[in-house]
Amino acid sequence: MAIFAMWIDGTSVVPEKVGPPVLRKVREFGREVDWSDIHGLRKIEGAKFRGVPNTRLNFHFPIPTPVIVPLFDAVRRTTVDRHVAFERAFLLFEGVNATIDTVNIKDGNITVYDSTQETSFRQLTGDHLTFGVSEARFEIRERTPTRNRIEVKFDATITVTVGFANTEDNYINFARAGMDFFVI
To answer: Which residues of 39-57 are buried (b: 16+ CB within 10 A; e: fewer)?
Structure first.
């Protein structure tokens, strides 16, 4: 059994729509930051977005995705190519008057996780910035009684739908997103 992880920084997140219909300029040090309604405020802590009150917006995290990895076979003293499967996804973020309403994970065009189909999923808000303590974690398995692992075929994208509250003071800061993969 081998598990490995791939992560991206929050500055890699891509909003599905930009500009005044859905995003507003981020406020920092008492002023609005130019262009932050287009690409967010990107800093070492990640990417911060401020929404128009009472709107929802999708954000996409393209995760570097291995499909086949070389493993060393000690018996044969050579490498063998092995496929990988999804294990779980993680999201580190902070939401203030903003909630993550849905999470959807795709392998190419194939949905491998849909929070609307998971009875244990709850809307997420607040501080989820500490890995191992408060991160948002999503187990990726087949929607069958056996809950088998799903083999990676193409590439992974995590999409979250954020709902911004009816207040001027709302934002979401994406710090990191990542996935664990299992060698099969």
So the answer is: ebbbeebbbbbbbbeebeb
Per-residue pLDDT tens for 1-26? 568 899 999 999 999 999 999 999 99
Report helix, strand or coil for 3. Answer: strand
Give the list of residues 6+ apart from residue 52 with CB closer than 8 angstroms, or none: 20, 21, 22, 23, 24, 164
pTM of the full predicted structure?
0.92
Please give the residue that has the higher pLDDT: either 8 or 184.
8
Phi/psi region, residue 19 (left: phi>0; alpha: psi -120 to 50; beta: rest), is left
- Count Cβ atoms below 10 Å from residue 10 Cβ, excluding itself: 24
β-strand pairing of 110-114 with 78-107? antiparallel
pLDDT digits (tens, 9 = 90+) for 108-125: 999 999 999 987 888 999
Q: Are 60 and 102 in contact (CB under 8 A)?
A: no
* Segment (H or E) for 66: none
